[in-house]
Design goal:
This protein is 56% helix and 0% strand. The structure holds heme C. The site of heme C has 22 residues, from helix 3, helix 4, helix 6 and helix 7.
């Protein structure tokens, strides 16, 4: 068997740890890193809409699993940039925040 890629292990780690994420600083993190495209309310602003963001209230986003959303944030998706420097706790907190904004 080939050796498992360290990235695979990292992704598995991210998926397993996030349940314990503390989301207290997620709002601040979102404002500094994400609101420039997604808007502070998650519906997407002018810049984000040019790139193709959907409102977090859209079923297309809310029907996805936490793991799907974490994957999109960590590894990027389409024109969405990747955020590999965020810790699994931060990504988990952001997913919770995305769910809050989507309500
Ligand atoms: C440069 C603009 C930009 C920034 C900054 C950005 N995003 Fe995105 N994001 C996008 C675009 C564009 C999409 C749509 C991707 C697609 O579906 O093709 C997206 C999609 C998403 C999705 C939905 C993924 C899906 O499957 O449809 C989530 C969740 C998300 N972003 C979270 C975040 C978070 C959290 C941050 C901050 C850490 C962030 N984004 C920062 C542009 C951005």
């Amino acid at each position: 068997m080939k050796r498992m890629s360290p990235w695979l292990l990292l992704v598995a780690f991210i998926v397993s740890v996030n349940c314990f994420a503390d989301s207290t600083d997620s709002a601040a993190l979102f404002k500094s890193k994400c609101a420039m495209c997604h808007g502070s309310d998650g519906t997407g602003n002018t810049m984000g809409q040019k790139l193709g963001v959907k409102s977090y209230k859209s079923p297309d986003i809310q029907k996805q699993s936490d793991a799907d959303l974490k994957n999109a944030i960590t590894n990027g998706k389409g024109k969405m940039p990747s955020y590999k420097s965020l810790t699994p706790e931060q990504v988990g907190g952001l997913v919770k925040y995305v769910r809050e904004l989507g309500k």
